Amino acid sequence: MGVIVGPRVIDAGASLLSVLISPVAVAAGFPSPAQDYFDGRIDLNAHLIKDITSTFVVRVTGDSMEGAGISDGDELIVNRALQPRDGSVVIAVLDGELTVKRLRITAKGVVLQAENPRYADIRVPALSELTIWGVATRCLHHV
User: Which of 2, 14, 49, 63 has most Cβ atoms within 10 angstroms of its Cβ?
Assistant: First the structure.
């Protein structure tokens, strides 16, 4: 169904990850000569997180968002300070249940759209309680 498993708080004082970076790009087509050394470090915090005070990591369970490149077991970086817009991938709380879906705002109302044809979109009834908990900004996909 595409639900999330408990958010993990990113500690504002912690350095998440600094890793070595290659000085050359890696070809995804034909192989090219590569360097045998790495050139400095890259701070993944700076590339993945814009606002550490409102950013959380959630783990996805289920396959309802596979069409968006989000698979079972992936982790989403979610920013709670971002304003959700039509087309955003969001963590939604619908009548007390957490789910990850694409937000669609239509003339007929709000739709939580699955990205897998095996799952029906959720048209949010007028009397339902819907809260957009946060907006997904990155997917950490396992390969």
Answer: 2
State the pLDDT at residue 142: 82
**pLDDT recorded at residue 10:** 46
Is-contact 122 103, C-beta < 8 A? no
* Known catalytic membership, residue 50: no
Catalytic residue selected from 54, 64, 71, 128: 64
The dihedral formed by the CA atoms of 45, 141, 64 and 81, expressed in degrees to the nearest 10: 0
End-to-end CA, the chain: 21
- Among 117, 12, 22, 17, which Cα is nearest to 56's? 12
Q: Decide if 128 is catalytic.
A: no
**Single-letter amino acid code for the residue at 62:** G
Q: Say if residues 64 and 117 touch (Cβ distance below 8 Å).
A: no
Q: What is the pLDDT of residues 88-102, one digit of tens each?
A: 999 999 998 999 999
Q: How confident is residue 1, by pLDDT bands cut at 50, 70 and 90?
A: very low
The CA distance from 94 to 84, in Å, is: 15
pTM of the model: 0.73
